[in-house]
Amino acid sequence: MTDPPSRTLALRVVTMPRETNQYGTIFGGVILSYIDQAGFVEARTHGNHRWVTASIDRVDFHAPVHLGDIVSFYTSTERTGTTSVTVKVCVEAERYENRKTVGVTEATITLVAVDAAGKPIPFGESCSI
Is the whole model's pTM more than 0.85, yes or no? Predict the structure, then answer.
């Protein structure tokens, strides 16, 4: 897995029993939800707007996340448009047993700034949240 040259820790969580499947690993959907949240945290650095997820590119899981792992979500802005931001999210898990860090997955997520009616707006326009 390759990391972007400049990245920010957007989110860090400890995995819990309610998030595990019968094999003791975390459901992929849980990680996807956190990827979405981390993308929002990065988008917010571009403006205090309502940010909604427009798309998440392909997500391949390279390693499982286990119960008790500390999972870190690193973000970097890849592109800004008039109304959207594309964010790279790299996910790493620090293993509970030995504190080794492994790359888990990465994704590219696009978020759009919208007004109260849900219409895309340019970053420069104000938006009441």
Answer: yes
